[in-house]
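Box S2. Input/output pair 1.
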Amino acid sequence: MHGEPSDSSRNNDIDQPEHDFPDDSRTTRTHAGESIEDTRNWPGIILFGVGIALLALTLTAAGYGFAGWVIIGGVSCIVCLGMGATLVIAEHRRVRNQEGLGLNEPHDH
């Protein structure tokens, strides 16, 4: 472990505060990693993940024949997926409007 740099000589660019979003110094694309980097997207991403888990649980309940749980799980799944997608899209639009850009980029990517 002699070749590892000490803590004092490591590059501290990773420890930037969250208000430096978007990070234009380390990317060539205008919004690479936007959904993960912007912490305001996390509730939407988490809700979307919960919706995927609820989909799996609903399909399992349907396979075992629990009709009541299928209805509860299906409604919960649709609500979580819808709210998660809505929150991520709303935050994406907020970032675009804050930067003075439209929703679509004029670039070819």
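Box S3. Input/output pair 2.
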Amino acid sequence: MSTANSAPGPAAGLADVFAALGDPTRLQLVTLLCGSGLLSIAQLTASTAISRQGVTKHLQVLADAGLVHDLKFGRERRWQLAPERIDAARHALDAIGRQWEAALGRLKTYVESGDPELSA
């Protein structure tokens, strides 16, 4: 038996992205990378009250979700945003928003129809 909850929705496969972005520190790191391009751990650490090790752990979670990746420049690693996964999450949220608007529209039509069962 298939239910609405078991059908893959527009956000299928993006749970790791939303989980990674659900942490305020990781969201701050993504925001920094979004506005600044390539940044080193030292540059990212300077913008937070978290240790280098803490920032590195947060970056690894973001990397595992496909949101950031690093490039090596000699001994230094610089991090940058990988916009594809953020675009996918944005598109999923847009689709969910359209579904929500359609459902509200149907509810409004039903309520305004004056169906006697509704007032019982």
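Caption for Box S3: The longest helix spans residues 83-112. The longest strand covers residues 68-73.
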